[in-house]
Design goal:
mainly alpha; globular; binds tryptophan
Length: 452
């Protein structure tokens, strides 16, 4: 008999789960990472591949992760171990959980640094420093900021403390209320920003950059990055959604919830793109600015629009919250494992995991300035962790999840857990998870190998 509750707590309702999982999915990945990678890889064709990946790979894998998590009801490592034993398969499947833990450490270490940038920009927006500043001044201010390790360290530290505080208290308690109000608010502000972008008379240029595919611009690496962005943005491949699924009650419909979460996440990313690129073109800037794109572009708008000081402050503040609710989900799998296996209390486990991530984050922030000479494959630590996790480790994790859910777990088990019958919906999922998702990931990997 499968467990019906988790020792780490449960969501209070179906809505609480949707809010938490959407809180995990919507974050810097949508508003910082999506625009800069889309800009880097030429726009339209990248976006199209990204959307296909969300629909054909992301949604079935998210369903699989929630399903496995809810069946195992433990940290991803122990869930995989328990399910593999149940099916009489090798215990090596727990390595999938370990891969996720490593991935979580790496992602959170740079995620926290970028979240720190966002916090600094709340203060800057509030102080009115963007007022009337032109693109060159704003870009120079950003470059100066990133070159200062002390400021980056301070913000990174504050953010990690915030993450540890919530995770130490248990994610089911505080998260729900925060997400319920802040996510809709972020959404409204994004729509307003798109409205502003429409007035720049370069809206059409932004629109065609994002939605008119030019396949000549799409390299193997571009396809890999579009797939990686889909995994990153949906929080897939490392067990974050798996552990959130383990706190979900047994009655909730996994398929419906997944479609809602993935739909909201994609909508937010597209809105961010629609807000940013018209301003990029109106200012005569290049879309391929790298990681600083959003921080160099949005402040220009806040500096020019009426009420921009307040608007910019609230926008960056909401972005901090969005990053916070995502970061929490990156730390939760390892904390759950520490609690289960080392019988540490939640507080100690959170502090221990948080300190390790913090240390790794210091390497990331130093790679932007004093350690800029140290590179691996031509990338500094931050860029390396970003590329390695999103484009390689998450899709690899997703591939293994798909193989496990589609081929190792018995058909009866997945039918039972989804509880949606064996009609068209289920058969479509099974087709996608057994064939489409693993083969697509494998092909994209093979195609991208030519890059290296
Ligand atoms: N999806 C989040 C974002 O877009 C980041 C994130 C949270 C994540 N949990 C994750 C990414 C797990 C990969 C795996 O900002």
């Amino acid at each position: 008999m499968a467990a019906t509750t988790s020792i780490h707590g449960m969501w209070s309702s179906r809505l609480a789960f949707i809010l938490a999982a959407t809180g995990s999915a919507v974050g810097l990945g949508n508003i910082w990472r999506f625009p800069y990678t889309a800009g880097e890889y030429g726009g339209g064709a990248f976006v199209l591949v990204y959307l296909i990946c969300v629909a054909a790979i992301g949604i079935p894998i998210m369903m699989a992760e929630i399903m496995l998590g809810r069946r195992g009801r433990q940290s991803p490592i122990n869930t995989m171990l328990a399910l593999a034993r149940q099916e009489g398969r090798t215990e090596a499947w727990q390595l999938l959980g370990w891969l996720g833990i490593v991935c979580g450490f790496l992602i959170l270490s740079f995620y926290s640094v970028i979240a720190g940038w966002t916090m600094a920009y709340v203060v800057r927006a509030a102080a009115g420093v963007f007022h009337g500043a032109d693109a060159a001044v704003i870009a120079a201010a950003f470059d100066g900021f990133v070159a200062d390790p002390e400021r980056l360290l301070a913000w990174h530290t504050i953010f990690m403390v915030m993450v540890v505080l919530v995770v130490a208290r248990g994610v089911a308690s505080g998260l729900e209320r925060a997400v319920r109000f802040l996510m809709p608010a972020l959404f409204v502000l994004l729509v307003a920003l798109v409205g502003y972008a429409m007035t720049t008379d370069h809206f059409a240029a932004g629109l065609s950059f994002l939605f008119r595919p030019d396949f000549s611009k799409l390299s193997g690496e571009g396809i890999l990055s579009a797939m990686g962005q889909a995994f990153f943005s949906l929080s897939l491949g490392m067990g974050a959604i798996m552990i959130y699924g383990s706190y979900l009650n047994s009655q909730a419909s996994i398929a419906r919830n997944t479609v809602i979460i993935a739909g909201l996440d994609t909508l937010v990313a597209l809105l961010a793109g629609l807000a940013i690129f018209p301003i990029v073109f109106a200012q005569g800037l290049a879309p391929e600015q790298g990681t600083g794109l959003v921080f160099k572009v949005l402040p220009i708008a806040f500096g020019q629009m009426p009420g921009g000081q307040l608007f910019g402050t609230v926008f960056f503040l909401l972005l901090v919250f969005a990053a916070w609710t995502s970061a929490i989900s990156l730390l939760e799998p390892m904390v759950a494992w520490l609690v289960e296996n080392l019988s540490l209390g939640r507080v100690r486990a959170s502090v221990l995991a948080g300190m390790t991530v913090w240390l790794l984050g210091v390497a990331c922030l130093l790679s932007l300035n004093v350690w800029s000479e140290i590179t691996v494959f031509g990338l500094g630590f931050l860029a390396l962790f970003d590329f390695l996790t999103a484009n390689i480790l998450l899709p690899l994790g997703g591939l293994l999840i798909a193989v496990f859910a589609g081929w190792v777990l018995s058909r009866a088990a997945s039918v039972d857990e989804f509880a949606m019958g064996e009609g068209l919906g289920y058969r479509l999922w099974r087709l996608l998870i057994r064939f489409v998702a693993p083969i697509a990931v494998a092909i994209v990997f093979l195609h991208a190998i030519q890059v290296f």
